[in-house]
Amino acid sequence: MLAYFIPLVSAVVAGTATFWLRTWVDRVRLDLSLVSIVKRRDPEDRVTVGERLAEVSRNFTAGPPIDESAKESEIEKTYDSAKDVQQCAASQIGFARALKSRLQDCRTKQDKIEFLQDLMDKHNLVFREITIGLQRHELTISPNKRSPSGGAQDLFESKPATMNNREVMVLEFPTFYQVFSGDAAPGGPGTHDRLVPLIEAMKKFDVNALRQCLDFAIKAIREDHSYADILMGGLEKTINSGPFKVHLLVVNRGKSAAVLNPYAALQTSGATSALDPLLLRIIEVIDAHENKTEVPLGSFVSIEPRSVVTLILQSDPVELSSPLTAAYDKELLGCSIMIVRVKKSSRNGTMNKPQESARKDFGAKLDQELHKQVIGLAARRR
Asked: Which of 20, 106, 133, 310 falls between 20 and 30 A from 2, CA-CA?
């Protein structure tokens, strides 16, 4: 009897061992590596700015207008334009006043050409305000019916042309030429026709018309300055309320697919005060061949066996006044990502198994710290 029993027990033990060994080999084995954490949106992400800011941007002639729902890149362009106006408004008004003072002193042809060259300088806001005012019918030039130059020859010739599929006017002076584009403001067909009175006033050096243009530019810059203050305040909050975005490298070394809860948590340490975990959602999966798959809201994420993927996780917008944003801007933090794997269970059907990445430094000052590390190590080797 014993002779039969021992082989039977051995077979059962061997079978059980084989089962558990196979289960161990075939189990899900995930390695998590935190690649990067940034606090910003992608340029193509759309953001709601509200009706008031959209309306102000349409009145703001020094920058591109934005819709109530605009791309992050569009918002940043308008914000940068508003910032430029804030910084240069006073000097540009002074520049326009200086040009007005020079008008009566331009006696010779060379004086007049130098004046026009300064007026049309692409780095000043004055000429842009004048051209946009004409295109929007906000400025109307009243030409002097009497020849302001006493019948003198035109200071330059103007010719229509096409450059890079754009309609332009080329102003040909004796020693140089100026490309005069009508793209400063939306206009459609006939936009350049609205600029003809300005070109004629410059050709004849019509002092009254040019003074009228400079007066308009001063008024327009002041208005844009007030609009810029509103845009800077509103858009800065919008830009700085961007979400935290995380790139997490996931390697599944096992022979079974890993099923992940679509939500994860950003855990931080090293701040002056304790910070609550920040909820993240997996929004995109990028495989080893750079193929991207968006993850619908509420969908689980499957990581195939023997595969490497990058998970893109994103939080909801985070207010500028939040403790995490304040710590991110001022302190160097340690962080990790905790994901939750959904695992089969013989008792309850499924169970949630948390898994955490190794900790990694991050924060707005991380770049400075990395510089210091390299310089410090280099100094020690001398």
From this structure: 20
Question: What are 338's two structure tokens?
Answer: 């905790």
Any idea of the CA torsion for 184, 185, 188, 189, to the nearest 10 degrees? -60
Mean pLDDT within 24-51:
80
One-letter amino acid for residue 228 of the chain? A
Q: What residue type is 131 in one-letter code?
A: T
Residues 6+ apart with CB under 8 A from 35: 247, 248, 249, 310
Show the domains of the chain with their CATH numbers: 28-43+243-365 (2.60.40), 60-239 (no CATH)
- Residue 49, φ and ψ in degrees, nearest 5: -105, -15
Backbone angles phi, psi at 127, to 5 degrees: -65, -35
pLDDT at 87: 94
Per-residue pLDDT tens over the stretch 266-278: 998 877 777 889 9
Tokens of 71: 């791309």
Q: Please compute, for residue 264, the number of CA atoms within 13 A of its CA located in the half-sphere on the CB side.
A: 29
Q: Are the C-beta atoms of 163 and 179 separated by less than 8 Å? A: yes
